[in-house]
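Justification of resources, computational component.

The compute hours requested in this renewal are based largely on the per-chain cost of generating structure records like the one below. Each record pairs the submitted sequence with a full structure-token output. That output is archived, and it is also reused by downstream analysis tasks.
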Amino acid sequence: MNDKMYTKLKNPVWFALEEAQKKFVIDFDGVKFYDPKICPFGAFEDVSKTANALNKYAKLTDKFFLVSEDKNPATETDLVKLHKKIEGCQMVLESLTETEITEEIVPLTEDYIDEIYNLVWLVMPGYYRKRTFDMGKYFGIFKDNKLVSITGQRMQTDDFIEVSAVVTHPDYTRRGLAKQLTIHTTQEIIKEGKHPILHTTKGNPAIKLYEKLGYTVTRDMNWWYYHKK
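The structure output for this chain reads:
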């Protein structure tokens, strides 16, 4: 991994909004946020600017996150209250483990936005917005004429793309669907000449799956979850 890539991975939201996804940026005095209709994430470099930026962004959305490896943003402001700090980690692909894909994996178009949204919020509520779909490609597996498992792409820079929204309907787990979708999405990122990464919470049982596929935990990555007062 070169120094440029290493620097971007330390602050992935920031660099995504400077590069491949700058069309989504809302900048408050050097604190960068995604348009809240796209994704409720923000990032910063200067901690002293976060309080004012939080107040401004809170006028656009009620609940949102600042993402940081090791810097502590302002936690209480005039308009915003810290709900909780979610301790997460970043994983980066070292070498993809070759695994046979036996399921039919379908590229998901705009026609499936509602189904994607409903499935993500059923399994993993909090992060996803309907227009998060605009951040990258989505893929799905259908069973019994309904969408039961998906993966997508979220943060992107000129160097990496994040695998995200890895969810399976509770009635269809333990069939290897998420595994095959993660492999497929990872392969699609590699085809684009970019490096696959992903983020998850510490202690998530899925970490073992990702490690078997060739991902390695590289650093902490924390989500500071704010509510408007």
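The mean pLDDT is 95. The helical segments are 3-10, 12-18, 50-57, 113-123, 177-191, 206-213.
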